[in-house]
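Weekly puzzle thread! Below is a chain. First person to post its structure in C-alpha cell form gets bragging rights.
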Amino acid sequence: MDLIIRENSCSFLYSDVSSNNLSVLPDGLFSRNYKINKIQFDRNNLQEIPVDLFAAGKNLRKIDFSNNNLREIPELLFNNTYNLRYVHLKNNSIQGIPNQFLFSTPEITLLDFYHNNLSNMPSDLLKKTTKLKSL
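Winning reply:
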C-alpha cells in the first residue's frame, strides 16, 4: 500500500495508519505538521523509519511503532520532540538503541521496547529522562 499525503495538507492532530501492511514511509512525512500529537504505525511491515519523520514534532506526545519489522532506530529520530511522552516499539527486531535516542525528550514517561533483540543500551540513555516511569 502506498501512503500519499500532499505536502501542504498536513494539519491534523492524530494519524492512525495501523494494520495497513505499510513497508515504507516517505521521508519528511510529518515535517510540516506542527500540530500532530499522536501517530500510530503499529501492525505494519515497516523495516525502517526515516530520520526526519518527526522534524516538526514539537507537539508530538505519543508514537506507536509496535509489531513491525524494525531492526534499528535512527539516532536523531526524536530530535525536536520535546513533548514526547509515550514511545511504543515492542515486538520488533531492534538490536540496539542509539546514543542520542532520547536527547530531546525530557517529558518521556513510557518507553516500551518489550520483545526485541536488544544487545546494547547506552549507559547515559536515561540521563535526561527524569520523568520516565516505565521502561
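Puzzle host: Confirmed. Bonus trivia for everyone else. Confidence is low (pLDDT under 50) at residues 1-8.
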